[in-house]
Amino acid sequence: MFITLQELELHSVPFNVDIPAGQIDYDGKVTQSAALRSEGVAELIGHSMGEIRVHGNLDVQVGAPCDRCLEAVTFPVKNEFDLVYVPASEAAVGGEEKIDAAEVEVGYYERGGISIDDVLREVVLLALPMRLVCSEECKGICPVCGQNRNQRVCGCQTTAADDRWNQLKNIRVETSPRR
How many other β-carbons are positioned within 10 Å of the β-carbon of residue 119? Predict the structure, then answer.
């Protein structure tokens, strides 16, 4: 669903969408396992230069491989959001400039409007934890044999020896106090 700036100049645009699984491309790793349901309102912020406020809520189930054991995991995402977008032309042009905290929380849009699918994609990705794990107790995969340690203990030695330091083991230094 694409909402144009011209529509928003006339009135706020409510949305109630059900997006089927597979329609939004997240990041290649995260997949949508059920329909995404969202409702909210997009509106032009009064007396602004094209600033759009989008607020509402969403509910979806996404799946991804566990970052430790690579088993498939499902994550429920229920989130309320309140976002502000400004035209990309308002973005600072050029090199490094100091930005304040308010500018960090602002998104940018192009093409004279905003895509609700893009907004919802962003909300889902930001709602997910940094590390997607099946449980905090997940033991992961053995780096030696590749066995999932949650299913079976492999008995491999996992302390990696760095052979660059082996010659130091042979050095015996006698230290005596200096007089």
Answer: 25
